[in-house]
Every structure is written in structure tokens, then in C-alpha cells.
Design a protein that fits this description.
By secondary structure, this protein is mainly alpha-helical. Helices cover about 60% and strands about 10% of the residues. It has 9 helices and 5 strands; from the N terminus they run αβααββααααββαα. β4 and β5 form a beta hairpin.
């Protein structure tokens, strides 16, 4: 029977970029158990860790820093959708993303800013601004690595709904 630590290690190996809460849910383990085993695995350099936009993601150490950041974003529904759209179009304006994804302009701007800062996207200097992938071939290779779980998609959609409701409330304060 596999030990808890080997289960954690195997799960990270099978789902690179999995974030802490998802790992805990997938393995149905207590928070303290997951924390303990992850700390030991990271300390022993069997796993690498990357913190991206408030979430802690885990990887095998073979992934470089750029791959870790990119995979972390690909584990999030909205960031993933933006990356896929940019990849499909090669270059796209944030306004087009806002329209096609039916998101608030501020939401798209936040994601584009984070993706640009992480060197996943590059913004043009001209007007209108457009975005493209910083490393299209490398990004395309990582697409196959990520297949989001149902709980990941549900949490992402819930957060999207909350963002939309907050945006509507800000646009209509009289309600």
C-alpha cells in the first residue's frame, strides 16, 4: 500500500501545477497531512513550488521557472481561456478578449497584466494594444500537460460568477 507521501508525490507528477487546495481535495487528506508531506518533499528537492497570484502550485523539479508559472496559469480557467485565444489568433486585442469571453474589461486587464508580468504574454507598444504569446512553441507544448479537473473548473466558474456580480454591483450602485 502506498504511503501518503508517495501518493502526494505521484499526484503532483501526474498533475503538474496542481495547487494546494486541489491536491488536498483530490487525495481527500487533511490540511496538516498535505502541508507536512509537501514540506518534506520540497525540502528534499523531490518537488518544486511556485506561488502565483495567491495560490501555491507544485511540480516535479524538472520544470523550469517559466514552465511552472505558465502551467500554474493554465490550471486556471480564465487565464487558460485567454492563453488559448491568444494562441489561436497569434495576436489579439484585449478589447476583443473582453467581448469574446464576455468578461469585464477590468478582469481581462488583470489577467493580461499577470500573464505579461509572468512572461507568458507580451503586449505591443503601439495603439491599439494587442497581446501575443511570449513563447508560442513552448506554451503549445504545455497545453497537453494540463487537463483541468471538474472541481478546478467549478471553482473557476464560481469565481467568475462572483467577479461578474461584483462588477455589476459596482456599475449599478443604486440597486
Amino acid at each position: 500500500m502506498p504511503t501518503t507521501r508517495s501518493r502526494v508525490r505521484r499526484h503532483v507528477s501526474e498533475t503538474p501545477g496542481v495547487h494546494f487546495n486541489q491536491l488536498k481535495r483530490d487525495l481527500d487528506l487533511a490540511t496538516g497531512q498535505v502541508q507536512y508531506h509537501l514540506k518534506r518533499l520540497v525540502d528534499d528537492e523531490e518537488l518544486a513550488v511556485e506561488r502565483v497570484c495567491g495560490r501555491t502550485h507544485y511540480f516535479e523539479p524538472e520544470f523550469d521557472a517559466w514552465e511552472r508559472r505558465t502551467l500554474a496559469f493554465l490550471r486556471r480557467e480564465m487565464a487558460r481561456e485567454i492563453i488559448f485565444r491568444v494562441h489561436a489568433e497569434e495576436s489579439i486585442q484585449p478589447a476583443t478578449l473582453t467581448e469574446e469571453l464576455d468578461l469585464a474589461r477590468s478582469t481581462v486587464a488583470w489577467h493580461v497584466s499577470n500573464l505579461t508580468e509572468a512572461d507568458v504574454l507580451v503586449k505591443s507598444d503601439g495603439r491599439p494594444i494587442d497581446v501575443r504569446l511570449a513563447h508560442p512553441e513552448r506554451t503549445a507544448e504545455l497545453f497537453e500537460t494540463v487537463s483541468p479537473s471538474l472541481p478546478d473548473r467549478l471553482v473557476d466558474r464560481f469565481m467568475r460568477t462572483v467577479d461578474s456580480l461584483l462588477e455589476d454591483a459596482a456599475d449599478h450602485p443604486e440597486n
